[in-house]
User: What shape does this take?
Amino acid sequence: EEEIAVNEIKKELNTAKLSKNIRKEKEYLRKLIWKYSDANNHLGSLEMAEEYVKRFDDQDEWVWNMIYINNRKLGKTQAANRALLKAIEINPSEPSLHYNYSILLSDSDGDLIALNYLENLDQEIKDNKEIKLRIITLKNNLGEDVTKDAEQIVEEYKNSPIVFSKFCKENLLGKVFKIANESYAYVDPKSTKKIEDQSKYLDTNNLPF
Assistant: This one.
């Protein structure tokens, strides 16, 4: 099914190239970046992303973030680091990019350096749910007592789960609930309207738990 979808997009991309429809070419190239990534073809996704920034727009933080993710999946740490820093340079107010950078820092320099990095960000970024949960997790990893912080998150989630993104629910809340000694199970409410999810930006490789 994924292969069929990829072939359809490639067909549309080739048609756009032949007709010199730049707008459509950009659109289908971006679709291929994500579709290849979904299919775990990280080399294919990387090649499409690199083509995009070379030919069309080298100031697109989403594409640079995909270059980061794909390089990271391929074990190219230095290239991943350069791409993510470029994305942050383009859009320093995007919390998900800082979240991803904290993952890189944990791997290269340890959780303390990652925590210091996040805690030195602007308050508006630190108020982001993914960043908050990441900070709690890092503090817990470092032996700090974050039970009260975790309990506050649990209470907030119970009162208003809609304010937490799908990424939080699938990847981050379980650990925080565990810290608060609460049980947690995520069920995707397909019919429930949720806040805009930014999981496309976030790195799920080597999550901190």
